[in-house]
Amino acid sequence: MTSDFPPHEDFLAFAEALADQSRAMLLKASATDPDIEIKPDASYVTSTDKAVETALRAMIEAEYPDHGILGEEFENKNTDAEFVWVLDPIDGTAAFVAGIPIFGSLIGLAWNGAPYVGVIEQPMTQDRWVGVAETMALFNGKPIQTRACASIETALTTCSNADFMNDTDRAKFDLVRRCAQYVQYGGSCYAYGVLASGRTDLALDGGLDAFDIYAPAAVITGAGGYVTDWNGDPLSFDMRGNVLAAGDKSRLDEVLFILQG
């Protein structure tokens, strides 16, 4: 499949330029107390979320006016285009509000609706994961690879927040949780980065949108891993739900079997 992808070098360089812009804005904003609004879904949004996405959109529209944009804070644009940028200006806004340094920016580029190029930008630790789906992945400029995992009983698993799952999905998650060796909660997009780096084995999350997962999916699959929904289906722009990531295909299949009863 990788041979079918268009050349990625220019897109990846531009994605990193977007990440540079986001890093500068978030480092400056983190020095002051944020102003907070509550969205209809009860989640936080700040003026910084909106300012970062506005700046990234302006850069994209200037460089690639024919590309679409799907973002968290503003109306989507031309999502039927061959190339669509998928933006989460602050992944982990609650952590940003609380001053916990695990928030980041997610910058993805989809090709024909599927994750293609991704950047996980962590401004406070100055860490950055970049990847091209099924092709390559780097952590701070060095190649990375997901790790093999012998069984779910030995799997180090992450979950950002199980409260985002409904009661039915929480019960399914608990089945996996009881099998796994350990579950580390929190971490937001950092958790997906460490999976790509081969430090963890599984990630299960609920209530996600495309902008939460497209960039990490490109990085994880670029590092040799796998990302699906809980039915084993590919990600899509209109998703709103549960995501499973695994570094080892056998563990992906094992967890899907558990989730499906």
From TrEMBL:
Superkingdom of origin: Bacteria
EC number of this enzyme: 3.1.3.25
Cross-referenced Pfam families: Inositol_P
Named cofactor requirement(s): Mg(2+)
Binding residue positions for Mg(2+) 1: 72, 88, 91, 212
Name assigned to this protein: Inositol-1-monophosphatase
InterPro entries (UniProt xref): Inositol_monophosphatase-like
Entry binding sites for Mg(2+) 2: 90
Recorded catalytic activity of this chain's protein: a myo-inositol phosphate + H2O = myo-inositol + phosphate
Alphabetized SUPFAM superfamilies for the sequence: Carbohydrate phosphatase
Keyword annotations from UniProtKB, A to Z: Hydrolase, Magnesium, Metal-binding
CDD domains documented for this protein: Bacterial_IMPase_like_1 (cd01641)
UniProt GO BP: inositol metabolic process; signal transduction
GO MF terms, alphabetically ordered: inositol monophosphate 1-phosphatase activity; metal ion binding
Family classification: Belongs to the inositol monophosphatase superfamily.
Keyword Metal-binding: yes
